[in-house]
Amino acid sequence: VGHAVLAINGAEVNGRFTADGKDVLEFLGNPANYPVSIRFGRHRLSSNEKLMLASMFHSLFAIGSQLSPEVGSSGIEMLETDTFKLHCFQTLTGIKFVVLADPRQAGIDALLRKIYEIYSDFALKNPFYSLEMPIRCELFDQNLKLALEVAEKAGPFGPGS
Fold first, then answer.
1. CATH topology of domain 77-154
2. d(C-alpha 84, C-alpha 100), whole Å
3. Helix, coil or strand: residue 18
4. Cβ(146)–Cβ(114) under 8 Å?
5. What does CATH list as the number for 3-42?
6. Is the confidence at residue 152, as pLDDT, over 80?
7. Which residues, including other chains, have CB under 8 Å from residue 36's CB and lie 6 or more apart?
8. Residue 147: is its pLDDT beyond 90?
9. SS3 category, 2
10. For position 133, what pLDDT does the model report?
């Protein structure tokens, strides 16, 4: 963790080859593959790393809300470091939505509200979804991906900063 990742059309690049074994130079040399989406970023967290981060944050959130001098504090809404910001939105029912973002990324509050809306529409209204279980719903996944793409395109210092 901590070094940059290059992805072409969503496939992570390692040296000259993508994660699915395609030669990058051949891929870029074929006009049929255009337009090409090239993205630089950090390695994605593994499932275990996400669970560890969520567990640690939940504890910090609980401690923060109890130690806050503000009566009725809702807990930690944002943790900021020089490499990322962790944003948290807690619903009235106690569900927490957490987003890790670039410290310069704008519009994260609107993204968190949109994620809550997507969760409400595609998980809570789904008769096959059980609370506190992984969400296995294609419409949820599609709408969440779209919301993240919109937020990513807004970029640093975009609307809502």
1. Beta-Lactamase (3.30.450)
2. 7
3. strand
4. no
5. 2.30.42.40
6. yes
7. 8, 9, 27, 28
8. yes
9. coil
10. 85
